[in-house]
Write a structure and sequence with these properties.
Blueprint (H helix, E strand, L loop, with lengths): L4 H10 L6 H10 L10 H13 L3 E4 L5 E5 L11 E6 L21 E4 L2 E4 L6 H15 L8 E6 L7 H5 L9 E4 L7 E6 L1 E10 L2 E2 L5 E9 L4 E2 L11 H13 L5 E8 L4 E2 L3 E8 L3 H18 L8 E6 L5 E2 L1 H13 L3 E5 L7 E13 L2 E10 L2 H17 L3 E4 L13 H14 L4 E5 L5 H7 L4 E4 L4 E2 L7 E3 H16 L5
Parallel strand pairs: 3-6, 3-7, 7-23, 8-22
Antiparallel strand pairs: 1-2, 2-6, 4-5, 5-25, 9-20, 9-21, 10-17, 11-15, 11-16, 12-14, 13-15, 13-19, 18-19, 19-20, 24-25
Helix pairs in contact: 2-4, 6-8, 10-12
Length: about 500
Amino acid sequence: MIKTDKQEKLDKMENVKLEPREVFECFSLVNKVPRPSKKEEKMIDFLKDFGEKLGLETKVDEVGNVIIRKPATKGFEDCATTIIQSHMDMVCEKNSNVEFDFMNDAIQTEIDGEWMRAKGTTLGADDGIGVAMELALLKDNTIEHGPIECVFTRDEETGLTGAQGMKSGFMSGKYLLNLDSEDEGQIFVSCAGGARTEVTFRFKHEPAPEGYFFFNVCVKGLTGGHSGDDINKKRANANKLLVRFLYNEMKKYDLRISDIQSGGLHNAIPREGWAVCAVPAKYKENIRVDFNVYASEVEEEYSHTEKTMKFLLESAEPADVIEKSVADKMIIAFQAVHNGVFAMSQDLDWLVETSSNLASIHKVGDSVVINSSQRSSVGSARKNMSDTFAAPFELAGAEVNIGEGYPGWKMNPDSKILKITQEAYRRLFGKDCKVLAIHAGLECGLFSEKYPELDMVSFGPTLRGVHSPDEKLLIPTVKMVWDLLLEILRNIPKA
């Protein structure tokens, strides 16, 4: 019998131990449901139906957060209520050569040794694997636990909309286990706050200048990653690399900009971008020489972190251009604006305190729109970072809008759930877990404002390449985190 590609894939997966099976079965269900940030309606319906079919109390609040309550198992009725929380949305990134509709298509997973990844797209394990653990917990009536509330928040990735809009009283638990962290063996007790900044340049189009050589310059194949957790890993930013070349050429020639499309989501380090430009035709070969020198220099700069970086330059058709006075100021502002780590923590040498990510640059009609995010574990420092990012664009005459942002999560030195988690980890694995803060946004910061008495920790299995098509999940760590979750639930104190 000739096997189809689908059958061969299934056979391959059967040979890989996807343990715990109930969690991976639920993860498969989750990845069949489209769930882009701000477009989670199908996922909300799925979760609501899931809880109701199990006969469990299921509610959806005004903003679309879902809560499913499960009573205690026998012998654990007097335990305090515990909240297990994940976000339902996912970052939707794909490679440019991949055809995929995140609004309708199911994520296609594959096994690579001990890792699970997707075919050319983000995997959705951030935070689909956390959602899967909650669903498995709700399905299995053999697990020992006190009263639990499984909470699924919407739009964590692009605005923390679910956590922002959640009203006090929606959750009633005393302890909260957030399943949105990305390194097994690490327990997080603090996170950075952040805000988005949007910049808009408005301009008039001018006809394509006669006697000019039009060309498309492109950078692609960068590593990318999470704009918080990966910001200190010396990865290149496609937007900064692209405009760096344009800035250098602008100083030599009468450079005109026709189009620019670079980067993606505000919380992802941009991996690729391109621009259509023009210079007087007599400088055509100069541009090619400059570009080759530039590409060689940048490849050397990032030789340790960007192994697949590619630079391309090719001829383009003449087209209208952005008025020069705006384009020049815009390129100068791009060159001047800070990107990456701004300051390290004064308390913890290894922790990034403040950073900024120049996330995307897109020409749309008569505007160029820039999106970015700024993060800090110190509120005043985050505000200063946003202002620092805004200043070059304000000088250049652009419109700047700094979002309200979200708060950080301050460590509770008297946390009972942390102690329970540490002891559970030691019993299971014979070693201590690491207790850390993270330079990324977690919903725990917002929960701490609405529920100041809530005692929280965050943990999860090992993920790499999150917020990029390189995202992958280390399969053995899923069972370790699952075992830890169940051990914590068995040891929740009495109410």
